[in-house]
Amino acid sequence: MTMKWRGWALATGALAISAMAQAAPPTAAMLSNACAGCHGTNGGSAGPSMPSLAGQSKEAIVDAMKKFKSGARPTTVMGRLAKGFSDADFVAMGEYFSKQKLHATNQTLDKAKIAKGASLQETNCGRCHIEDGKEGKDDTPAMASQWLPYLQIQMADYLSGKRKMPEKMEEKVKPMSKQDLDALLHFYASVK
Amino acid sequence: MTLDRRNFIKLLGGASSLALAACAGTGGGLSGPTGGRRVVVVGGGYGGTIAAKYIRMMDSSIEVVLIERNDHFVSCPFSNLYIGGLMKDLSPLTIKYDKLTTNHGVKVLQAEVTGIDAAKKIVMTSSGEVTYDRLVLSPGIDFRTEEIKGYDAKSTPETIPHAWKAGPQTVLLRKQLEAMPAGGTVVLSIPLAPFRCPPGPYERTSMIAMFLKQHKPKSKIIVLDANPDIVSKAGLFKKGWKKHYEGIIDYRPAKKVTEVNAGKKMVTIEGIEDVKGDVINLIPPQRAGHIAVAAGLVGADKNWCPVNPTTFESTIHKGIHVIGDACVAGAMPKSGYSANSEAKACATNIVNTMNGKELVDFSGINTCYSFLSAKEAVEVTGVYKVDKAKNAIIAVPGSVGVSPDLSEIEAIYAESWLKNILTEMST
Questions:
Q1: Which of B93, B365, B351, B374 has its CA nearest to residue A39?
Q2: Which end of chain B is more exposed for a tag (fewer CB within 10 A), N or C?
Q3: ipTM at complex level
Q4: Across the strands, what pairs with B187?
């Protein structure tokens, strides 16, 4: 009964909210909304060098955040920001973004490269980047509809050795030409 | 009796949802009874737009009225790039509000707020009174011009721009730089912290120096900083200035400008040392936007608004929340990204309160980029949370830091930062 009165008093403004000392720890939405300034509302990015998080799998987000935190994956801001959160926070954010609808980007892409990439992806990448990159096996990130500049920056980091490729990816990527890789990125960027 | 909270409130408000539907159709009725579920947001910048949008995203049964005097907003972040000549106009920094209405049902009222009656819960505007259940103020900053002798709040900025609110002032400063003869002197005066955007004056120094280097041979910029040293990213700015602008930037710490003479184009430091310039960019000391000051929301320092660190509700007037540059947000810097994070936490807790749900503690982020040259940027980041014992927002240890060096990739990320945050505010 006491609680009910209090709730009523708060709702009608009879009490200042600040009178209530207790508050729950940050929810998944509270943690994730703070990311949206750079990654877009609900994780749908409008900035070509920033990845969309919407529709990404929980496992991929947790894996990326852990690697940012440890320094295993090269970053600018993310290494420091990841240090501000716990592993449980990573899981909460991962779950939150995995539930958001895949963000379809509208970008200018080369049609010939998309077609070439489409023919290459099935045999080379499709075992892990499943469903045309809309999903990923285990902690493999979804790549469908990501911004091409973001994908190109990541590929450059892989090729320079700054970002370490998973073994299976390395086997496939090493023999490929730069043109083939660029075609693949065009393909994944085009998937909606 | 198991009446749930929502229904209970509806009963109290007297079929409030019907009343709201009627309001939405006519666009009027803002001075009448609120139905118990109206939030008024004042200020359509980095904080206000986000608070308005997120309240509607979280609960579309809450009526949100965004009051803003202009029909558009120009971003301060990146406006230094325009001053440096890297943008031809301010359009990449300008947003409109129409999609907040079409996408989220935010009612936008273009009007000047003239006063707030905290007891009666009324906002007075140039278009009449607007009643509220909860009020969110995101008024930004105004200037303590009375602390600078000879400064007339209206006429001085017409010749001595501050350019610390983006728009016509930004354009004026660039025009003055363009008109300045080669070999001229620019004077930039920086107030004591805290002020809006801690690294902003030093980014401006860099962008003006870049402009002088390219277009005005033998010119220089004298920086009169009231602070004992560069307030933010000091090592990186010093490194960048040495790399690019040796002999162009004359940085003078602990030089507090106390007087201005617009006719003579001169400022005076502590009443004794005169400095003349062909162009003078005087950034006066700051306080919360005048609406918040007039409403009695500033604390003992008479400048900034103390708030609850979880809800951003004023500790002075209940029912009024203050976000962005105007509030005291503990360890968070006065930045656009901070305002974005604060707005979301404030929105969450207003919605939860109106729905009789539990409050949620604040978790926020700051990410702030500064350009040192046309292609190089640096940043500062941090994650922030509430310290219950201190009842204040603190930085999470290890999360706060700056770029290791100037870099081109950070400039590329900065461009996307701008694109994303402005898109978030306007769609």
A1: B365
A2: N
A3: 0.91
A4: B222, B280
CB contact under 8 A, A18 and B349: no
Structural domains of chain B, with CATH: 5-142+287-359 (3.50.50.60), 145-284 (3.50.50.60)
What would the DSSP string read from start to end of B314-376? BSSSTTEEE-GGGEE-TT--S-HHHHHHHHHHHHHHHHHHHTTPPPB--EEEEEEEEESSSS-
d(CA A184, CA B231): 46
Looking at the predicted structure, is the pLDDT value of residue A141 above 80? yes
The residue among A177, A189, A50 whose CA lies nearest residue A111 is A189
Q: How far apart are CA B188 and CA B324, in angstroms?
A: 25
CB contact under 8 A, A11 and B340: no
Q: To probe the interface with B, which of A3, A10, A49, A70 has the most B CB atoms within 10 Å?
A: A49
Residue B28 pLDDT: 54
Listed in sequence order, the residues at least 6 apart from B379 whose beta carbon sits closer than 8 Å to its beta carbon are A76, A77, B367, B368, B369, B370, B402, B403, B410, B413, B414
Spell out which residues of chain A touch residue B53, defining contact as CB-CB under 8 Å: 41
Give every residue of chain B whose pLDDT is below 70, as ranges: 1-28
SS3 state at B201: helix
Closest CA to A60 of A97, A12, A113: A97
The radius of gyration of chain B's CA atoms, rounded to the nearest angstrom, is 22
Q: CB contact, 8 Å: A74 with chain B?
A: no
- Name residues whose C-beta falls within 8 Å of residue B254's C-beta, 6 or more positions apart in sequence: B225, B226, B227, B228
What distance in Å separates residue B356's CA from the closest CA in chain A?
A: 5
Question: B302's torsion region: left (phi>0), alpha (psi -120 to 50) or beta?
Answer: left
Q: pLDDT of A78-125, one tens digit each?
A: 999 999 999 999 999 999 999 999 899 989 999 999 999 999 999 999
Q: Among all residues of chain B, which has the CA nearest to that of A150? A: B413
Would you call A76 and B409 a contact, using CB atoms and an 8 Å cutoff?
Answer: yes
Q: What is the separation, in whole angstroms, between the first and last Cα of chain A?
A: 52
**Amino acid B348: pLDDT:** 98
CA-CA distances (angstroms) from residue A119 to A110, A136, A149? Answer: 15, 19, 21
Taking the CA of residue A39 and the nearest CA in chain B, the distance in Å comes to 7
- C-beta atoms of A34 and B315 within 8 A: no
Q: Which residues of A touch B313 (CB under 8 A)?
A: 16-18
Closest CA of chain B from A122, distance in Å: 31
Q: Which SS3 state, helix, strand or coil, does residue A27 take?
A: coil
Is B356 in contact with A45 (Cβ distance < 8 A)?
A: no
